[in-house]
Amino acid sequence: MPPISIESPFGDVPEALLGLLRAQAKWGQEYLEAVTGTKLPTVTDPVRALQSALPTPVCHVPLPCWMPQSLGDLRSFVDKCGKACVRLLVTNCDRVERTVQVRAEGVQGVEVNPPSLHLGPMQRGTAEVSLEVPERTEKGTSLEVLVWVDGCKQHYLRWTIHVTPAGFDSCHEIPVDDCPDYRHHWYDHFYCPRPCPSGRSFARG
């Protein structure tokens, strides 16, 4: 029976398995060389070679629930005097009524219609954010607009409008799922609730 100690609770079993793995790797190498006639590179440590061939695991932890949620980056290409717009399709996927506010900042002249949506449980609504590029805007200008959607959660969209001679009127549609997160994740503390932040729920009494 192989010796057992605190440093090696399984005795010589792991070393015996590694020896078997090395022997199998050596046999496979010699077999392929005999069949193909091609000299293969020598693998001195098959365990380390296998580890280096495997992808490195990446542990991704998302932002905390109280941080604004990104809706991505959007780019529009319009000519001067053209119009660019974004239609926000907002879904209230909760069981209570909620008022969602939509606003834009960063560029003068951006219009939001309507600036707020009152949505019942599971209802959808559309808000349009638009900008008519002034006639005096030089070609090659880039205008960056930050669009905010404040509901159960706070969402934001980075919208860049490029003024180019080959541009034309454009309008994009962006879905916004405004939902509380009641699911417990492995990166949460068990005592942290995850409903809508206080002040964001507008249920009728």
Description:
- Helices cover 16% and strands 35% of the residues.
- The N and C termini lie far apart (75 Å).
- The protein has helices at 13-36, 46-53; strands spanning 69-78, 83-92, 98-105, 111-113, 116-119, 124-132, 142-150, 154-163, 170-178.
- The protein is α+β, with helices and mostly antiparallel strands and 205 residues long.
- The longest helix has 24 residues, at 13-36.
- The chain has 2 domains: 13-53, no CATH class; 69-178, Immunoglobulins (Immunoglobulin-like, Sandwich).
- Strand 7 and strand 8 (154-163) form a beta hairpin.
- A 5-stranded mixed sheet has the order 1-8-7-3-5, with no helix packed on it. Strands 4-6-2-9 form a 4-stranded mixed sheet, with no helix packed on it.
- The chain is elongated.
Alpha-carbon Rg, integer: 30 Å
Q: Report the end-to-end length measured between terminal Cα atoms.
A: 75 Å
Total strand count, please? Answer: 9
Order of helices and strands: HHEEEEEEEEE
* Proportion in β-strands: 35-45%
Mean pLDDT: 79
Q: Decide which structural class fits the backbone.
A: alpha+beta
Taking pLDDT < 50 over at least 5 consecutive residues as the criterion, the unreliable ranges are: 201-205
User: What is the 3D shape?
Assistant: elongated
DSSP summary: helix tally? 2
